[in-house]
Every structure is written in structure tokens, then in C-alpha cells.
Amino acid sequence: MKILIVEDDKTIALGLEYSLQQEGYTVILRHDVTAGKKALTENKFDLCLFDLTLPDGSGYDLCKMARERWDIPVIILTACDEEVNVVMGLELGADDYITKPFRVRELIARIKSVLRRYQKESNLKNIIELEDIKINTMDAKVTKKGQEINLTALEYRLLLTFVNHEGHILTRNQLLEGIWDVAGDFVNDNTLTVYIKRLRDKLEADPQNPTFIKTVRGLGYKVGD
Q1: Residue 125, exposed/middle/buried by CB under 10 A (0-12, 13-18, 19+)?
Q2: Which of 124, 159, 194 is the last residue of a domain?
Q3: Potential cystine with 97: which of 62, 76, 125, 221 (Cβ 3.0-4.6 Å)?
Q4: Is the dihedral of CA 148, 151, 157, 159 positive or negative?
Q5: Do residues 109 and 210 share a domain?
């Protein structure tokens, strides 16, 4: 599992990095908001540890970005345990907080607890509903208005790529990356065009005027608002 740590106290940060690596985690370490945001755009993490007070901003900003972009668990590290700060962090989506100074073993226990809880919640999310489309990820079944829609493996993966990024514009390159492990060497830009058309033919009320898989001219495609 990959963990992002954003902590400006380099002594604390290096200690955390070493301890978590000993537990088998892959750790990416950054020391300010700017570098933390860059890491979040370039990597997919399983959990984030954000210091509350950073040189160029607040851990709150990173927490909000992590939850909006990837919906991953966040633990706030803070030297201040005033109720208002704790409440604000939790309202922005933090899953837990720990006050400095803390024992590393306690933090590791908190990390494991949050990851277990998050995994259980994720397992419950095996039904995805968007407009009149329902996807049961447990048996890879897709229905539209209760009627089952037969999709190929590549069409299904493409649909999942869209719905897992609901509301976000996806470039053609991002979509190609999303279906690469299904299509392998057979996937290319022309293939993508064909499969988007096939998916629209099966899911749209009017494939010539799509409202589910929308084209964002010059940028890519988007599902949802």
C-alpha cells in the first residue's frame, strides 16, 4: 500500500517514513502543500497523513483535494487539539486525527484501523447507480431501467473508468490507460473511438445526441455533472 506523508518537520517526517516502510508500506514524503498537491495529481495513494500547519498553507487544503480527487482516507497530524480544528478536519473529510507528540506505534495502529474500516465500506459499494444505469461490480452486471445490458470486457472496463471518475473530464489518454490491461496492444486511439460509440449505442436513449457520456469539445469526455 502507498501512503503520502506531508509534514514540514523533517525529523518527524523521516521517522514516520522509516517506521512505515518497516511495516511494509510504500511511502512518498513531501514537506509543503505545493509538493503535496503535485504528488496527489501524479500518484494514487491508499492513505494520506497531512500535517495541519505547513509553510505554504494548510493540511485542510490537501485533505479536501485527496477526498475529492481520489476519495482516499486521510489522517490529520496536528500539534493543536482544539475542538474547532478537529471538527474542521473531520468536516472536510479526514477520517482521524492524532495530536503531536504521538507514539509511532499508536499512529500505525490508527492507520491500520482506518484502512480496515475504509476497506469494509468500499466492499459495500458494489452497486454503482448513475441516472438509470446500475452497475453491480460483484458480478459485472449492467442494467438500464432494470433491463440487462450485455457489454464486452472492454466496454465494461471503459464504463467503469467513466463512472469511477464521475463529474471529471477524462482525456483520451486517460481513457486509454483505463482500458489498457483489458485490451493490451490492441488498444489505440481508433479503438477508443469505436468503443465509445458502441457504449453509447447500448446506453444512450439517443446515441446521436448523447447525454450520459458527454463530449467536452477539445478536452475529452465526462459522465455526470
Answers
A1: exposed
A2: 124
A3: 76
A4: negative
A5: no
Q: Which three cell numbers stand for residue 206?
A: 439517443
Distance CA 182, CA 161 (A): 12
Find cell 499512529 and name the residue: 107
Q: How far is CA 169 from CA 15, 134, 196, 214, in A?
A: 38, 21, 15, 9
Tally of structural domains, the chain? 2
pLDDT digits (tens, 9 = 90+) for 78-107: 876 655 566 666 666 778 888 888 899 999
Residue in this structure with the C-alpha cell 481508433, named with its chain if needed: 190
What are the residue ranges in the chain where pLDDT is below 50? 182-183
Predicted TM-score (pTM) of the model is 0.55
Indicate whether 27 and 116 sit together in one domain: yes
Per-residue pLDDT, 1: 86
